[in-house]
């Protein structure tokens, strides 16, 4: 069974969490095994990421940048990769973010996570609380990721 990690940060209003859950629903509906992890609730062990087939990363826009919890993941990932690249590089992944009206995080989000591997689908954006259209786009992304995991 294809495995997907949905790694996100959500702290303020649950906007990014709702998007993460929708990505997970889409992937699950397409037959994938889904793990959700909120970096506001802990620090992900990079070994979890190493083992999954695909990932999705979601962040709120914090000062036009990604949330600190996701940056910590990238730092951990980078250091772990120096020791053993196996399973840490070339990982297909999807991206999503929420913002309060600015949304300039898209550029650093796409640029930073490009190091992890090939992006799957379109980056999904939500201004404030995700509406039905945004949630449908998140579910679609989850389905695309589940498909990418089977290739
Ligand atoms: C510390 C902090 C910094 C923020 N900076 C920005 C910003 O630069 N641009 C923007 O559009 N929204 C900004 N916001 C708003 C959040 O991105 C937005 O409310 C987001 O949906 C919160 O996601 P969450 O509910 O999942 O935590 C900021 C919020 C916080 C708490």
Automatic annotation (TrEMBL):
Domain Flavodoxin-like: 5-146
Gene3D superfamilies on file: 3.40.50.360
UniProt xrefs under Pfam families: FMN_red
InterPro entries in UniProt: Flavodoxin/NO_synth, Flavoprotein-like_sf, FMN_Rdtase-like_dom
Ranges that cross the membrane: none
Record GO terms (molecular function): FMN binding
PROSITE patterns per UniProt: FLAVODOXIN_LIKE
Protein known as: Flavodoxin-like domain-containing protein
